[in-house]
Specification:
The complex is a heterotrimer of chains A (161), B (892) and C (470). By secondary structure, chain B is of the alpha/beta class. The longest helix of chain B is centred in the middle third of the chain and has 19 residues, at 308-326. A four-stranded parallel beta sheet of chain C has the order 3-2-1-4, sandwiched between helices. Classes of the chains: A alpha+beta (161), B alpha/beta (892), C alpha/beta (470).
Chain lengths: 161, 892, 470
């Protein structure tokens, strides 16, 4: 019986000297994987225009119906995005979101990506409904791998009305 | 379209398609034959209602014995033909066509409003290639703006010319066309003007791609996010079924009924049911800022918060007091012909069994009891239907500007006449110039000669001789000023037609002539034979319903007031209380008695009829005299301002119910949203009012009301309310909303049990009690003497109305006040269409836009009464004469 | 006697249009617009019928035409031959349509619905738009009465009372001459009511086109004549059943109609003897391009291509080597010198792998870049496609874009096969033959001269750029 007891302790002692898997969060932060799916980001073009055109494909791809958006038409004076359409209201309910990344897959403009941020605690339910301002990348943060100029309206073909 | 009717009595042809044998009538195109056995041949330019263009080349099929592939849309079937729709060569051709169509396509599906229901997307799934071989610069057009309702994006166009053909053939206006040549072809309108006809919105549905899209719907939602509400249009008596596409309860767009495709409800690009712009764009008034949202008690002040209980008690108390002090005959009820049948039924029950009066009517827009009597006669003799035009040989339209009163009925008639299925004849002082282009003959006369003309026609037809006698023809020619051949061909058509319908507009019959004209029409119908029917067209949506539900002083549900059996039946149904059987007052009399102080309490259900009264000051004066006025309405009006209690009701998208159209078809209205804020469904308001008055209605659900009503109608309707619901609110379509969680409940609550897709029950309600010929007593007509032109008038669908006039989309599109002038008079005045004309009537001066058309008879001019401010109420016994003068240098 | 629906463009505007045609088609057109100075070589015993005295100044007036036996044939049929017998004579002669398709004229006439009581029409297709073809123009400009006589006989045969001549808008001389000739004929009682005192009425109207190639297609021509946009119609119904104003209509080429008086006069056997079994009679061959004497040559249909090019047209310019021949207007396949001995009739050219079409022979010498030729022709088809149906509208534009890059040397190797695939997808799938006509030049140049395409791609430029032809 003692033998069994010692055997069990041996396992314990062996593990005492192995390196730790856990980290001391929040003092220490884990390095996440490059494809980590955290809080959503909405990308911009290098000239600051939003990539999102409000096509709502993310909303239809979302399995938990967490995305709601309303589109509107750009005015030539203050275009929000290249082209005619932009997302006037873009909301993601993080309480519903399961971080599957389907929205990122569905996006035809590479506008929505799931970023590395995972610290998503809050005290009220309303805090978890993210608006466009919460997700759009700040101009000082750069544009990541999508750092290109927006493709604006092409000129009309010569001779056409 | 497989026009069985045009190719009279065709023989059948047997052929095989993909190895399956089938038999179809001769003359059917392969594409339709294949459709009949469930083989769908992809196509863009082919549309069953339009002529064949054959330009998209996507419907190519292989036919045994033919060297080339043939297009299935233009090759009629032949005996023993073998068609293959799915061979390698056919697939290769379709892949090729798709590649060509997509070569210059901008591929902007994410921003395109057509995304999700685009035919390019649909066929790309089957025949598209994944990569592009087109390496050069794509063709790009600039974006023009030419129509306030239709957005055009030429880069997406595949030049199927459906829009061009629709405008040319069905809307009858050569306004769109293909411009330029070859690759640079584009769709546009002549002179870059708008597509101005009333059916223009249909080109949006017809467009198989995203070239023509709806401006009001632009970027409102993606189509797959929308909830489809199968309902009926509330605006005119054509009674079109429509689908409202709603998002969070808000109507985003309205289309003709949708079809089921692979388990989903989608827009039907190949639909042959077209709707007018008023129905398509005018249904967006549900969330209007002016809506009545809270009950109001006038004594408390308009902004004072009032609970429903207080309001109902206040309303009931006033009525009870008047009933107790002055007897039930001092209370009257006025309903709106836009209310549903159930509401109208409850309303008249409220009047008859709760208050105990027969002072109930829906005809608040009529100025005199004479006209009301004519209306009763017209409605009770109505037995015509235009449902199946292939069984009708001839349609006689009298005095009805159908295009402006019931556009889709007009469209149906014109299509049938264009395809020579029916003979269309027009008659009267104001004919529909749009229909006249396809009419076989038309006769015009002065407004005071109408009954004489109908009488003369009657006499000419009644004669036994095979040829009309010259004396009769001369009489008619004298009255109408038409040529001998026209008159003869009209008489011959009427006599030779085996069956027919006489359509007449009741809004253009004036007081002193009204009964005479209807009498004469009944006599003419009797002369023509039992296969002929009468169809009066009211501009109001549910006038037939109001008549059928007994919401009229001389009517009971399902029969006239003189039917003792119905009284007994009602007494037993309504709790064995003896009902007052004394005759009630009609609407003109109610107003008259109210201004005399005899009627002291009035309940108004929807004030739109009163607002159409030709003498508004008389209505106001009557309402002002009342001691107690209760108004149930959705929008504020001059009536609600006078009301002591205002109870906010529900609009058409917020309630269930049924409407009956001019032809007697019962249509279901479906609920897709809740009334805003405190507003309530009308039938519940009526129930509470009855309860407060001491009699509780025994209905648990609206279906109970419907069932009871239908039991009283003849013929009894075999369906329940639930069964009448047209197929398909989007059960499969999940509702997405996280901002307004409460909305989820409404939409789910408004979801109905769907029936089998092919089954859409219809039920006709008709009360044809045909009297025999009437006495030939003619009242001498009166027209104001003196020089000038005779003025006639009628309301139009797009006028300034209580509901329709409020649509933010349609309001800017309302026609500017116009005056129709016959070309012969226009020539004398040197006026052309578009000129500004000054109208002088007594002291009055009015600037109007001239429209030169064949509509009004020579010597008369016509105005839309709900577009202009003319004191027409003063001219109810004699028609006014007006002077016209062209105003130089002004184009309106 | 003008057509009430005439949409005329004033003659002064034609100069501009003509300049555009020159500009578009390059040197190939220049030769063909000249008249043949020396139309017949000595070896040919055939006396020209339609190009008789073609180098005269001005047109042949009525008096002169009648003096040499004109309108005799009309008189003959009106007095002695029944309408159906005229059709029978034409059928026996084996006259095939000269417009391009080569459909037997008599057979076409007999397609008219029997016993139809309403009006029927004859339309003369004088919208000679095919590049490389100019055979109708001398007939109309020099011998308008020959055409009018042929039309009158045809109208008599098909019982039509109204005929239209749809003339290419750029042929303003022809329009003027025809109008004058029609006036002369009316005055002489050869048109109008009771022609030559017989029970036969005929009105002929001239309608100028407005410069669209597609309006040479018979149904597009009818649409244009009706005042609509010139879009080809779907067939069936064929024009013989439902044509102009939805009435039975016969459409024939100028040359076909101008051949008819001589058939009536000299008999169908004489006509048959001039050609081979299936292609009888004589024909005008417009020879253009790098030949010494470009022009129209009217010869019996037994003639070979070699005779036409080397004997009649005098051989290749500067005695260079022959490289390619387009035998029947640009809608036909390019032939190589191997086919020189082919007989230039419908069957002979078909055996050689091309089509006789309108017989407009375009000759190219060794200095010509075939990719450049194909590019020029693809430009033409892109410009002239009406845009009604998908494959032609999008396909011709696509081909043009590829060909323009190809000629600049910016093509890709896989695009040669892409071109063939595009041609395959246009062929036989468009509404009218324009789509089918746009592809042979591409297919045959790739077939015979693929190495030139490859050379363009590998060199990155046109290897012929400095040669004289460019």
């Amino acid at each position: 019986m003692l033998l069994e007891f010692l055997k069990g302790l041996a396992v314990t002692f062996r593990h005492i000297f192995k390196p730790h898997i856990t980290v001391l969060y929040p003092e220490q932060k884990r390095v996440d994987a490059p494809i980590f799916r955290g809080k959503h980001k909405l990308n911009r073009y290098a000239d600051g225009q939003e990539r999102c055109v409000g096509c709502a494909l993310c909303a239809s791809a979302c399995p938990s119906e967490a995305i709601y958006l309303e589109a509107a038409e750009n005015t030539p004076e203050h275009p929000v995005s290249p082209g005619e359409r932009y997302a006037e209201l873009y909301q993601i309910n993080l309480l519903r979101c399961i971080f599957c990344g389907y929205c990122e897959e569905a996006c035809p403009e590479n506008a929505i990506v799931l970023g590395p941020e995972y610290e998503l605690a809050g005290t009220r339910r309303e805090e978890f409904v993210m608006n466009k301002e919460d997700m759009l990348v700040k101009p000082e943060e750069g544009f990541g791998e999508y750092d290109v100029e927006a493709v604006h309206e092409l000129p009309a073909t010569e001779g056409l009305p | 379209m497989p026009d069985a009717a045009t190719t009279q009595k065709t023989s059948n042809v047997t052929l095989t398609i993909d190895g399956r044998s089938l038999t179809v009538p001769e003359g059917t195109m392969i594409i339709e034959a294949a459709k009949s056995i469930g083989i769908y041949i992809p196509h863009y330019c082919y549309h069953p209602a339009l002529s064949i263009a054959g330009s998209c080349r996507l419907c190519l099929v292989e036919i045994k014995g033919m060297p080339k592939l043939q297009i299935a849309c233009s090759i009629p079937v032949k005996e023993g033909m073998e068609v293959f729709t799915n061979t390698e060569e056919v697939k290769d051709a379709r892949i090729g066509m798709m590649e060509f169509l997509l070569a210059n396509h901008p591929l902007d599906c994410p921003v395109c409003d057509r995304g999700g229901e685009c035919m390019l997307q649909r066929f790309s799934v089957d025949y598209g290639i994944a990569h592009t071989r087109f390496m050069d610069q794509k063709r790009r057009f600039r974006k023009p703006q030419f129509d306030p309702l239709i957005d055009i994006e030429r880069n997406r166009c595949i030049l199927c010319t459906r829009c061009v053909r629709f405008c040319d053939e069905i809307a009858g206006e050569h306004v769109m066309g293909v411009f330029n040549r070859g690759e640079q072809n584009y769709i546009g309108t002549y002179g870059d003007g708008p597509v101005s006809n009333i059916f223009s919105g249909n080109v949006i549905d017809l467009c198989p791609v995203g070239t023509l899209t709806s401006k009001p719907f632009r970027f409102q939602a993606r189509v797959w996010e929308l909830h489809q509400l199968q309902t009926t249009c509330p605006y005119c008596a054509s009674g079109c079924p429509v689908t409202c596409w709603t998002r969070d309860g808000k109507v985003c767009r309205t289309t003709p009924p949708i079809r089921k495709d692979k388990g989903k409800y989608v827009l039907d690009e190949d639909t042959t049911e077209f709707i007018c712009n008023q129905g398509r764009f005018g249904l967006d008034i549900g969330h209007h800022a002016e809506r009545l949202r809270h009950p109001i008690i006038r004594n408390n002040g308009p902004d004072a918060p009032v609970t429903w209980d207080e309001a109902i008690q206040a309303a009931a108390q006033g009525l009870r007091r008047i009933r107790n002090e002055h007897g039930p005959q001092a209370v009257a009820f006025l309903a709106s012909p836009s209310a549903t049948c159930e509401e109208l039924y409850l309303f008249q029950r409220l009047a008859r069994s709760v208050i105990g009066t027969n002072n109930i009517d829906w005809r608040g827009h009529l100025a005199s009891p004479d006209i009301a009597a004519a209306f009763s006669l017209a409605m009770s003799t109505a037995n015509g239907m235009l449902d199946d035009l292939s069984e009708i040989e001839c349609v006689l339209v009298l005095n009805c500007d159908l295009l402006h009163e019931a556009p889709v009925t007009a469209l149906k008639l014109r299509e049938a006449a264009r395809k020579a299925n029916i003979e269309l004849l027009l008659l009267g002082h104001h004919i529909d110039s749009w229909l006249a282009t396809h009419a076989k003959a038309y006769l015009q006369c002065l407004p005071d000669q109408e009954h004489a003309l109908i009488y003369a026609l009657d006499q000419a037809i009644a004669k036994a001789e095979p040829e009309p006698t010259s004396a009769d023809v001369d009489t008619i020619r004298e009255l109408s000023g038409a040529g001998k051949e026209t008159v003869e061909s009209l008489i011959t058509s009427l006599r030779s037609a085996g069956s027919g319908v006489i359509v007449y507009g009741v809004s253009e019959i004036w007081s002193h002539l009204a009964s005479t004209v209807v009498d004469d029409l009944v006599a003419l119908r009797n002369t023509l034979g039992p296969q002929w029917a009468l169809l009066p067209v009211n501009p109001e949506r549910n006038a037939s319903g109001a008549f059928a539900t007994g919401c009229q002083s001389d009517r009971l549900p399902g029969s006239g007031c003189d039917n003792q059996k119905t009284w007994e039946k009602l007494e037993s149904l309504w709790g064995k209380v003896p009902l007052v059987r004394a005759a009630g007052l009609s609407a003109p009399d109610i107003l008259e008695q109210a201004s005399l102080g005899e009627i002291k309490g009035l309940v108004v259900l929807g004030s739109d009829a009163l607002l159409r009264h030709p003498k508004p000051e008389r209505v106001n004066q009557a309402l002002k005299t009342l001691e107690h006025l209760v108004v149930i309405d959705v929008f504020p009006s001059s009536t609600t301002e006078q009301a002591h209690v205002v109870l906010p009701g529900a609009l058409f998208t917020e309630k269930d119910g049924t409407y009956i159209d001019a032809e007697g078809r019962l249509a279901r209205l479906c609920k897709g949203d809740d009334p805003p804020e405190d507003a309530r469904d009308n039938w519940q308001i009526l129930g509470e009012l009855a309860k407060a008055l001491g009699t509780e209605f025994p209905y648990q659900r609206l279906d109970d009301v419907f069932a009871e009503l239908m039991n009283l109608l003849h013929p009894p309707c075999p369906f329940t309310l639930e069964e009448l619901a047209p197929e398909g609110p989007g059960a499969e379509c999940p509702i997405r909303c996280i901002t307004k969680p409460s909305d989820r409940f409404h939409v789910l609550a408004g979801k109905y049990h769907a029936l089998a897709s092919s089954f859409r029950p219809t039920c006709h309600v008709r009360f044809a009690e045909l009297p025999t010929a009437h006495a030939e007593e003619k009242i001498p007509p009166t027209v104001e003497s003196g020089p000038g032109l005779i003025l006639t008038w009628a309301p139009i669908l797009q006028g300034r109305d209580h509901w329709g006039g409020r649509s933010p989309t349609m309001a800017p599109l309302r026609p500017s006040p116009y005056i129709e002038i016959h070309p012969s008079n226009a020539k004398e005045l040197a006026v052309q269409t578009g000129d500004a004309v000054e109208l002088r009537m007594g002291e009055l001066r009015l600037l109007l836009r001239a429209i030169v058309c064949a509509g009004p008879a020579p010597g008369t001019v016509h105005v839309a009464s709900n577009l202009v401010d003319l004191p027409l109420g003063d001219y109810l016994t004699r028609l006014p004469r007006v002077q016209l003068k062209k105003v130089e240098g002004k184009q309106t | 006697m003008n057509c009430p629906y005439k949409i005329g463009v004033g003659p002064r505007n034609y100069a501009k249009l003509q300049w555009r045609i020159f500009h578009t088609l390059g040197p190939y057109c220049r030769g063909v617009l000249l008249y043949a100075r020396e139309t017949m070589s000595n070896q040919n015993p055939f006396k020209p019928v339609m190009l008789h005295d073609v180098d005269r100044k001005g047109y042949e007036p009525l008096a002169e035409y009648r003096a040499r036996g004109g309108y005799k044939a009309l008189e003959k049929v009106l007095t002695r031959v029944a309408p159906d017998d005229v059709t029978e004579i034409v059928k026996q002669s084996g006259l095939r349509g000269r417009g391009g398709a080569g459909f037997p004229a008599g057979v076409k006439w007999s397609f008219l619905p029997k016993g139809y009581q309403g009006p029927r029409y004859l339309v003369c297709n004088a919208d000679e738009g095919e590049p490389g073809t100019c055979k109708d123009r001398p007939i109309m400009e020099k011998h308008p009465h020959l055409l009018l006589e042929g039309m009158a006989i045809t109208c008599y045969a098909i019982k039509a009372k109204v005929a239209y001549i749809y003339v290419r808008g750029e042929y303003y001389t022809a329009i003027e001459v025809l109008e004058k000739a029609i006036d002369e004929a009316y005055k002489a009682g050869l048109l109008g009511k009771g022609i030559l005192g017989k029970e036969f009425d005929l009105d002929i109207y001239v309608h100028p086109g407005a410069g669209a190639y597609i309006c040479g297609e018979e149904t597009a021509l009818l649409d244009s004549l009706e005042g609509k946009r010139g879009y080809p119609r779907l067939k069936p119904p064929f024009p013989a059943v439902e044509g102009l104003y939805r009435r039975p209509t016969i459409i024939n080429n100028v040359e076909t109609l101008a051949s008819i008086p001589s058939i009536i006069e000299k008999g169908p056997e004489w006509f048959r003897s001039l050609g081979r079994e299936k292609s009888s009679g004589f024909k005008i061959y417009p020879v253009s391009g790098h030949v010494k004497r470009p022009g129209n040559y009217e010869v019996p249909m037994k003639t070979t291509l070699r005779q036409l090019i080397y004997d009649h047209a005098g051989g290749i310019r500067n005695d260079r080597k022959l490289k390619a021949i387009i035998p029947g207007g640009i809608s036909t396949q390019v032939l190589t010198p191997d086919s020189l001995d082919a007989i230039a009739d419908f069957e002979g050219i078909a055996e050689a792998g091309s089509l006789l079409g309108s017989a407009g022979i375009i000759v190219m010498d060794e200095t010509v870049c075939m990719v450049w030729v194909a590019m020029k022709l693809s430009r033409f088809y892109h410009h002239e496609s009406c845009g009604q149906c998908t494959p032609c509208r999008e396909g011709t534009a696509w081909i043009r874009k590829i060909m323009e890059r190809m000629e600049r040397g910016q093509g890709r190797p896989e695009e040669i096969d892409l071109l063939l695939d595009l041609c395959h997808k246009i062929n036989a799938r468009s509404i009218c033959p324009l789509g089918d006509g746009a592809t042979p030049c591409i297919i045959s140049t790739i077939q015979h001269f693929r190495h030139e395409y490859e050379q363009h791609i590998s060199m990155g430029r046109c290897p012929f750029r400095s040669t004289e032809a460019h």
